[in-house]
């Protein structure tokens, strides 16, 4: 297709542009707010806290590394780096998979679980203060529905999709 045959881009309307910029601004500020709270209270970034939460909710506090990358929506190399840092703190350990020698499991240690127990109240307070205390129950429900629709639309179903956790 040459340039003359390219369809005209569907530019954002002024209202869509305002909504998009407000979304970007709010999500950047929220992520920074949560990162600062977790760095202050536990010496870890928000992404590391999320990894610990995923592990805490897994049976025997254990997940295959590939599953943890998928759950966290991050690349395997980024996960490997994060797990190495969490191992250094004594919060996570790695073990080879018993059923598949090629794979590894990440396991939340008792020390890591303790960090979550101490950090979770402050984190929940930060989330509540930043989001839920500012929204009416109806707005919170609408936001939840909107985010669900967006996530479902963005979740690739093609087996050949370029997914972060497969990189």
Describe this structure in words.
- By secondary structure, the chain is mainly α.
- It has helices at residues 14-42, 46-57, 65-72, 76-88, 110-132, 137-154, and strands spanning 62-64, 92-96, 104-108.
- Strand 2 (92-96) and strand 3 (104-108) form a beta hairpin.
- The chain starts with 13 loop residues before the first helix and ends in a 13-residue tail after the last helix.
Describe the structure concisely.
The protein is mainly α. It contains six helices and three strands, in the order ααβααββαα.
Features:
3-stranded antiparallel sheet, mainly alpha, single chain, globular, 167 residues, 6 helices
Mean pLDDT: 92
**Overall body shape:** globular
The amount of helix comes to: 55-70%
Order of helices and strands: HHEHHEEHH
- Overall radius of gyration: 20 Å
Strand order, sheet with most strands: 1-3-2
List low-confidence stretches.
Answer: none
Assembly state of the chains shown: single chain
Please give the largest β-sheet: 3 strands, antiparallel
Terminal CA distance: 31 Å
Task: Quickly count the helices.
Answer: 6
Tell me the total number of β-strands.
3
Strand content: 5-15%
- The class by helix and strand makeup works out as mainly alpha
